[in-house]
Write a structure and sequence with these properties.
Length: 118
C-alpha cells in the first residue's frame, strides 16, 4: 500500500515549479564540493579551464548552473571525469580509497575564476 504513494506521478506544474525554485534559492553547495588544485589544473587556468570536485549525482547541466551562479561567470563547456576507487593497504589490512567525480569547466574568454582567494 505504501509503495503506491511513493510512485505517484506528479503533474507538470509541480515539477516545473520545483525546478525553478531550487535554482533561484542557491544550490551551488549541493553540486560543488571544492576546487581541485594541482599543478596540472593550474596550467589549465591559462586556457580558461577550472577543475572542481563535484557530488556523484551531479550532471553537466547542474554543474554549469552552479558555477555560473556561484562565481558569476559564463560557462561554455563542462567535461566530467569519474575517478574510480582504488584498493589500498595499511599494514596487513586491505581497504578501499573512495572514488570521486570531478568536472572541468571552460569559462568564456576574458572571464576569470579566483579559485584561491588572496
Amino acid at each position: 500500500m505504501r509503495l503506491k504513494n511513493i510512485f505517484k506521478k506528479k503533474s507538470e506544474k509541480e515539477t516545473t515549479l520545483v525546478k525553478e525554485t531550487s535554482f533561484k534559492e542557491g544550490f551551488a553547495w549541493k553540486v560543488l564540493i571544492s576546487p581541485y588544485v594541482t599543478e596540472k589544473t593550474t596550467q589549465l587556468e591559462k586556457q580558461n579551464q577550472y577543475v572542481f570536485r563535484v557530488y556523484p549525482q551531479a550532471n553537466k547541466i547542474d554543474i554549469k548552473k552552479a558555477v555560473e551562479e556561484f562565481y558569476k561567470v559564463k560557462v561554455e563547456e563542462v567535461r566530467i571525469i569519474k575517478v574510480p576507487s582504488k584498493r589500498k593497504r595499511m599494514g596487513r589490512i586491505w581497504g578501499w580509497k573512495e572514488g570521486y567525480k570531478k568536472a572541468i569547466v571552460k569559462v568564456k574568454e576574458g572571464q576569470k575564476i579566483d579559485v584561491l582567494p588572496k
